[in-house]
Amino acid sequence: MTRTIALMTDFGLQDVYVGVMKAVMCDIAPNATLMDLTHMIEPQNVRQAAFSLMNAYAYFPKGTIFLVVVDPGVGTARRPILVDAGDYAFIAPDNGVLSYVLALLDDYDVYALSNPEYRLENVSNTFHGRDIFSPAAAHLAQGVAPTNFGDQLDDIVRLPLPELSQSEGVISGEVMAIDNFGNVITSIGTMSWQGSDRLNVMPLFQPDAVRIPVLVHDAQVSINGEQVRGIAASYGEAMRGELLAVVGSVGYLEIAVNQGNAAQRLDVAVGDRVELQTGDINAAIRD
Fold it and tell me: Which residues are paired to 38 by β-bridges?
């Protein structure tokens, strides 16, 4: 079976690093399909990579191997690992970059990438993407069993899960990401439409949580001293240059500016607090 290897790095595209990783994999697994998920993760931003991977992996065909190299600890005691999750496999440094994906998966096994047979002969201290991770991904694509790469591991590094809490009428979260358009993506989600005037919010990583109802027109989002009234279904519901709250493509609450940059306008950063006032559902029901 031909397998897909999807690459995510913080290497950018100016240097030769990504091309060299692909060359290594093509030499070992010439029939593998190589896909670029992104190489524009902010340098050393493990959390951004974890969030991006979580929102992308399920759109790939079953059997895909995700090669994630965002590795500020390269050359240190941090371990290279392989996660076998049945439908998907993940190869990455053990620095928490797989935390959010694994929080969504019920069944997986983790192995150390310690077998020298599946590395390049000369391993540098600064480019494990080439010398350890790429060969492992290629050998896995060629049918090497996960158990052959090294010992099974029970403990791996975990990032704290995104903040999300609820009190009466208020959902509190944080800025999880800022995309290339300057849209501010929050941890308040996943949101699903209930007609045109209501949303349900299912808290992330809480499959047994009660869905939280939100009145679309009465809702108010507060972020960095700014308030936004109502939640839109699309960016075009606001005038050009107008600030709006919107349900993004994967169901998270976003703050955007139609044809503008909300992050710059609001002067916000990843980790900043955001609050959503849900509106008076009981009053709406009585009406």
Answer: 8
